[in-house]
Amino acid sequence: MSRLIVISNRVSTGGGAQGGLAVALSAALREHGGIWFGWSGNETSEFSGQISLERIDGVTTATVDLEEQDIEEYYNGYANRTLWPLFHYRIDLAEYERSFAGGYQRANERFADTVRPLIEPDDLVWVQDYHMFPLGRELRDRGIANRIGFFLHIPWPPRRLLATLPEARALVEGLLDYDLIGFHTEEWLQSFCDYARDELGGIVDEDNVLSALGRKVRLIACPVGIDATEFAALSQNDKARQTFERLQESAVGRTLIVGVDRLDYSKGLEERFLGYERFLTEHPAERKEVVLLQIAPPSRGTVDSYQRIRSTLEGLAGRINGAHAALDWVPIRYVNQGYPREMLAGVYRASKVGLVTPLRDGMNLVAKEYVAAQDPDDPGVLILSRFAGAAEQMQEAILINPHSAEEISDALRQAISMPREERIERWRKLMNTVVEQDVMWWLKRFTDALEAIPASQSAFIDA
Ligand code: GDG
């Protein structure tokens, strides 16, 4: 078995409060041996490429500090203010600055210089996400002939949106140096093919191998999962049970609806609140029987668009509560803080409706966690946006268009009145998928596909 070199913006080894993805990548690193490389999260006055090596729970991590300018231009700039909004279809929020693009390229070159000496000839190299698009090419330029895979955790935008990015062509050309590119869904994969065909004259064969500009790269749709068995067990531990009981007491007989999202404009929180308000107005009789608990830990607080969405939501929650609350009831509990995972599991289990309404989302793990945490004898109902990658696998949820307040309102009504047998039937199908296509399934599918690529494929083909 080849060693694995995982490369991502940040490195987290699955200890403490880490999510399922970090746990799975750590498990793969333990099995294959290898190294997890990335930015330390720290700033240094002058970049030195000094690697800090650590061994945590059987996983070797290698991290490097970046200069303030790198962090500003690469991370806060190009990653968070250019690529993230553009790839979530928000060109209105995307900032196109040459300095960001330059800093992004520089940081990737620095990553390549730093990780290069750690890579041995038979290692599988696996690059994660949009922070690192150019890394494959930079490694090739430094003589790395290994199999290199790339996985994109966010959507791939439609061709005409991507074309608004000044560096679009160079970015996609750079991706041709990978051997394998993974997307969560067929839809994101097809959007990538559209661009490669129309802008680069590429050809995609029946095995999803793209040939363009004399290079070949294999494409796969490989949806990420959660550790469903672990999460189901978590929902029954002491801390989860205490949270469950506390919520049940505080909701006194009311139906709890839950949303859990990083505070991000892609998650459709504003539209969710408006859809919920619509439900309150359209169904006065049910009004006081429901409570919406929205957990939204703030993120990327230095970026303007995140400050704006935060204040918009505060205003909206205040207005809805002001307009609809009664002496003994507040319609929205809006909480701007994070909770430990086992408490979240208890929150999901206590909630009869999981409301997941992103406007665009690569996958959305909350939808899967919500399902995994349910009581099999009395499960809650998942309402899910059609525009989340998860919708491709989770057809038994109530699927909605998150831009339509009416659809959200109708879906809430349907979920709240759904008979137990129907809830159980839908949940069983959803749970089967979440358990079968879990995070270890995802990991194995991707690494097997990478390992199956003949080592020579990364060389030039005849044009
Ligand atoms: C990217 C893509 C893709 C949230 N609040 C708390 C908390 N969380 C955890 C959830 C879940 C995770 O954060 C969020 O996962 P998502 O999938 O929703 O979204 P992103 O962070 O945007 O991740 C996404 C994912 O990559 C994987 O490929 O699904 O589409 O955007 O696990 O539970 N965790 C804790 N406390 C909180 O308050 N502990």
Automatic annotation (TrEMBL):
It comes from the Bacteria. GO terms for biological process: trehalose biosynthetic process. InterPro entries: Glyco_trans_20. It holds the Pfam family Glyco_transf_20. CDD domains: GT20_TPS. One of its GO terms (molecular function) is alpha,alpha-trehalose-phosphate synthase (UDP-forming) activity. Belongs to the glycosyltransferase 20 family. This is Trehalose-6-phosphate synthase.
